[in-house]
Amino acid sequence: MEVFSFLVSGIFTALEPINLGLILVGVTVGLFIGAMPGLGSVNGVAILLPITFLVPPASAIIFLAAIYYGAMYGGAISSVTLGIPGASTAVATTFDGRPLALQGRASLALVTAALASFVGGTVATIFFTLFAPLLATVALNFGPPEIFALMLLAFATFVGLGGDDIPKTIFSICFGLVLATVGFDTISGEPRLVLFDIQGFLRGIGFIVLAIGVYGIGEMLWTIEQTRGEITTTNPKMTAKGLASDAKEAVRRGWKGTWIGSILGFFVGVLPAAGATPGSLMSYGVAKMVSRTPQEYGRGSPDGVAAPEAANNSASTGSMLPMLTLGIPGSPTTAILLGGMVIWGLTPGPRLFLDESEFVWGLIGSFYISNLAAVLINLAFIPLFVWMLRMPFTILAPLIFVLSIVGGFAATRSMHDLWLIVIFGLGAFFMRKFDYPLAPAVLAIVLGPIAEPTLRQSLLLSSGDPMIFFTRPIAGPITVIAIILILLPAFKLLRRRRSVASG
Amino acid sequence: MRQGEISLAGLLALFSLYLMWKSTELPIGFIRGQGPGGGFWPFWLSVGMLLSCGAIAWNWWRGKSPASVSDEPLMDAFGWRTVLHVGGGVVGFVALISIVSMYGAVAVFLVYYMRFLGRHSWLLTLTIALLLPIGLFFFFEGAMQISMPQGLPFTQPFFDVMYDIIY
Most exposed among A165, A277, A363, B96, judged by the fewest C-beta atoms under 10 Å? Predict the structure, then answer.
């Protein structure tokens, strides 16, 4: 009952005029950003983070969460109409969304995506409401060793579950963590890693600098180089009557994928560092695995659109759970949200539910409202989004570069940081060419300032004995799981070699 | 691609070595009563980076990564030209900020990109290149009270006029 009364009060907070207005604006902006090729929720949240300093923290997080929701809905639009995913979370949507569009059924694909996203978001919000306080209570027992073990688990998830090249993933994590140490040593107060003795590095390197560099500049260069600036569109035919009949067909042919995506997406999203991309890919895989007609997948199955779309929305809500209750983000976007909360003076973690309950429940309430707003706005604006995507890329791209540079300066007020954004952007482009995953670096630069002090405090507590991470009741199992996840790729390799050897 | 992958790994390994050396400016061992020194964490992370570069080189030598077995060039002439024009444009954009102000640089960049790379009409180009910086000015300087770089003194008359409108 207590949860219910908190939830009702949270929904009322979300319905306050300023918050409701921010939800509507955030969802709409997020839809546009998510629908743009090369841009996803992470770009939207990173670019618009500076704007949030104008409003109270509760309204700020509601705005950013609404952008996050909107972008998750919008990601499907360019996947379906252009055949290129608006963001990595919408990659799996391309598999069946694009074939449907090529068959002249783009509206079915878009409506399926919107409805599946709505169900995914709603199911995840209900799970969130039920589990968040429970997890927060458990998390209250966390000390430095437990928190460091969780950080280790966050990085291990990237290594163990990620399909990317393992050494490159580890390099990316270490690189992000080292960047986070530039500036001053927070314990001794001495200058540290002032690279090439350039005084600008004394300010440290903010996560927003790396995030805008990687996603605002690097990803855009990548998209331009890959598509050669020539993006072909499919013009879906849409009428009101057609939308209604597509909605019926979407429910009939996409319900199974929707439920699989909604449930699986949430639990994958909750895993630190996993987030919506693996959630949507896994849901697509499972939906295909349990389907009676797996041969339809890849040829235009509505279930193949529904599963990843439900999952990416569900995972985006799920990934906020560890961010709020434990202070560890489940995705690059929540990593940026976490950074924002720190700037607003809030400390994400177990005590947040006790110290800032109005903030937390206002946010949870906003999930319900944002989700409803997102599906309505999405359905109403689908024809407009399609028109926008037909805007020449030679207009869209410079606008995105301008937003990145101007937004980057607004956030840092430093030309040194602006040059760093450009350097990171160009560096990210070339690293991406050689398959270096860069999301782990963004995650690491956010988690670094939490990981280092907790490691050093833990080792101080144990007089330098690393066994402290194995002997404590909560830290021990988490550390062991993290190590297993880190070693998982090696086990898989060994098993594969044995099966090859045995013929 | 094959040559590029090992060259990049080599460069990153050198950078890791530099970071290891730079980390040793602070103690990297355990200090009794204080815990690990200030250089401990970045030093061992840089070691991790170096070892990862070693593993990347090992995979390259065994031909285990897609780039290591690819004979294709990193980019063809069109790709290099595109990256040079677009990336160079962004570098020029940031370089111009200290000279013609943020808003001036936005306008010049939009003209460069839309007119010379995008081949759009002068009318469309100038409409966007003039309206967007003015919109950004009112948004940042007026609504958000964030001052953007104003460049060299010759831009001051423009700012005087614009501030008169806001205040």
Answer: B96
Average pLDDT over residues A351-373: 82
Measured in angstroms, the CA of A122 and the nearest CA of chain B are apart by 34
Which pair of tokens denotes residue A184?
């001053």
Average pLDDT over residues B87-112: 96
**Chain A residues within 8 A of B109 when measuring between CB atoms:** 398, 401-402
> Which of these ranges, A58-62, B90-94, B116-120, has the smallest mean pLDDT?
A58-62
pLDDT, tens digit (0-9, with 9 covering 90-100), for A45-68: 877 777 777 778 778 888 888 888
How many beta-carbon pairs below 8 A join chains A and B? 174
What is the arithmetic mean of pLDDT over A477-485? 88
Of chain B, the percentage scoring pLDDT greater than 70 comes to 99
Number of domains, chain A: 1
Mean pLDDT of chain B: 91
Smallest CA–CA distance, residue B159 to chain A, in Å, is: 17
The answer to whether the CB atoms of A398 and B114 lie below 8 A apart is yes
Give the model's pLDDT for residue A74. 82
SS3 annotation, A21-65 = HHHHHHHHHHHHHHHCCCCCHHHHHHHHHHHHHHCCHHHHHHHHH
Asked whether residue A233 carries a pLDDT value surpassing 50, the answer given is no
Q: Which residues pair with A183 in a beta bridge?
A: A192
Q: With 0-12 CB in 10 A as exposed, 13-18 as middle and 19+ as buried, what is A2?
A: exposed
Nearest in space to A14 (alpha carbons), one of A371, A372, A378, A361: A361
Do residue A459 and residue B30 have CB atoms under 8 angstroms apart? yes
Cβ contact, residue pair B120, A165, below 8 Å: no
Q: Which residues of B39-61 are buried (b: 16+ CB within 10 A; e: fewer)?
A: bbbbbbbbbbbbbbbebbbebbe
Q: What is the rounded CA–CA span in Å between residue A348 and residue A326? A: 7
Kindly state the DSSP code that residue A88 receives in the 8-state scheme. Answer: G
Length of chain B: 167
Read off the pLDDT of residues A119-165 as tens digits, 9 standing for 90 and up: 999 999 888 888 776 766 666 667 889 888 878 877 776 675 455 58
A426 interfacial to chain B (CB closer than 8 Å): yes
**Chain A neighbours among B 107-146 (CB < 8 Å)?**
109-110, 113-114, 117-120, 128, 132, 136, 140, 143-144, 146
Instruction: Say whether residue A195 is in contact with chain B using an 8 A CB cutoff.
Output: yes
- State the smallest CA–CA distance between residue B52 and chain A in angstroms: 5
Domain holding A29, by residue range, is 2-501
CB-based contact A51:A67 (threshold 8 Å): no
CA distance B20 to B41: 10
Q: Tell if the CB–CB gap between B30 and A178 is shorter than 8 Å.
A: no
> How high is the pLDDT of residue A360?
81
Cα A254 from Cα A248, distance rounded (Å): 10
B84 touches chain A (CB under 8 A): no
Residue A349: which of A341, A332, A472, A181 has the closest Cα?
A341
Q: What pLDDT is recorded for position B99? A: 95
B110:A195 CB<8 A: no
| Residue A431 with chain B: CB contacts under 8 Å | 8
Residues A279, A264: contact at Cβ < 8 Å? yes
